[in-house]
Amino acid sequence: MGKLTKQIIWALVLGVIVGIALTFVPEDTFSGIDYYVLTPVGQIFMNLILMLVVPIVFVSIVLGVAGLGDPSQLGRLGIKALSFFIATSIIALSIGVIVAYIFEPGNVGSFNLGEAEYNLEEPPPIMDTIVNIIPDNPVSAMATGNMLQIIAFAVFIGLGIAVLGEKVDKVKTLFEQVNEILMWLITAIMKTAPYGAFALIASAIGDAGLDAIGSMAMYMFCVILALIIQGAVVYSLAIKVLGKASPIKFYKEFFPAMSVAFSTSSSAATLPLAMRIAQERLGVNKSISSFVQPLGATINMDGTGIMQAVAAVFISQAYGIGLTFTDVVTIILMATLASIGTAAVPAVGLVMLAMVLNQVGLPVEGIALIIGIDRILDMLRTSLNSTGDAVCAYIVSESEKRRDAKLAN
To answer: What is the DSSP string of 120-167?
Structure first.
């Protein structure tokens, strides 16, 4: 285990202890500490990483697609990645539903439903998302962080470099040099990770409070159990069977990225480090990592899907509204579709959940019941989301290596 990994682990442990201690101080005192110390330190760390997300995603995908050479290879990689993402999303949602029905978190304790209130934010229609994948203004897409549009534009630029070949060697070299600078920057920024992780987790726990955590303990238990099953069983089996590798070694190497995902609650913020680890420590082909992981950060959200499944069943139980088998299937399908095109930023799962609840006739106001502790669960599910992207990139990369070896023979 590397020095930085140990530092991050200790920072997270200390952050949890301090966060719990802060729940016992007066609210004004906590607000002062949070405003003047924890939030600035955490936000500076977040901003340092987010500063690099758009340039790293754009440059990496351009180089990745240009490095593939054959455009048909891009289509093959896309089909493999999408198949994995859809399959694991459906499995994750099914696990969430099953766990929620077994432990019935909505039937444990009493919830003040009369005070539950949540302002619904309308998610974009699916067809609008599909149409808007192609940007009418690439600069605007980069300025607003529209990941799907950035990915689409980068793919076109990469294809242009691949097709033109030697004519644009200088352009390709420029991208490679910019990529070197960005990788150096993310390595330097990661030295501040322990401080950022400490501040973010202490703030999240201190803000939620022990009362909120206690009253929602069974709901939290169900979400965390489902996340563990998805990571420890589903992903481990995928790594072992499809990737033909050791899941323990995979998780040991990828842990620093998981801890950053945990502390930032943002798949996008984790991308630079996750891609670097996948390429340098896990041996994932750079072209495949550069294409699959940014795509996964945008459309693959197994952890978020688990939360939605558990939350939908929890809210139905808390309000005493029964769900039919059709409703359960609808939750699984809608949550899978809802993840496409949503931003890889903190708390986006609540907006997606509102869409799912509307679809099956459950009260959107029920989201207010889980808001208090959602920030903590958001950290855990983001860690799983980022891990799922890396697992997919690893499996696709290994399958391509075996394919190339077979063709060589």
So the answer is: PPPPPPHHHHHHTTS-S-HHHHHHHT-HHHHHHHHHHHHHHHHHHGGG
Q: What is the pLDDT of residue 361?
A: 86
pLDDT at 73: 78
pLDDT digits (tens, 9 = 90+) for 214-230: 768 899 999 999 999 99
Structure tokens at 208: 């939620």
Radius of gyration, CA atoms only, the chain: 21
pLDDT in tens, 231-245: 999 999 999 999 999
The closest alpha carbon to 227, from 93, 335, 339, belongs to: 93
Distance (Å, whole) CA 280 – CA 240: 20
Label residue 347 left, alpha or beta by phi (over 0 means left) and psi (-120 to 50 means alpha).
left
Query: Can you tell me the mean pLDDT for 195-206?
Result: 89
Rounded Cα gap, residues 138 and 132, in angstroms: 12
* The pLDDT value given to residue 8: 85
Domain ranges of the chain: 3-408
d(CA 274, CA 279): 9
Instruction: Please give the Cα distance from 392 to 256 (Å, whole number).
Output: 18
158-177 mean pLDDT:
91
Helix axes 147-164, 39-68, angle to 10 degrees: 30
Identity of residue 67 = G
Structure tokens of 286? 């750079």
Give domain 3-408's CATH architecture: Orthogonal Bundle (1.10)
Residue 267, pLDDT > 60, answer: yes
C-alpha to C-alpha distance for 14 and 17, rounded to whole angstroms: 5
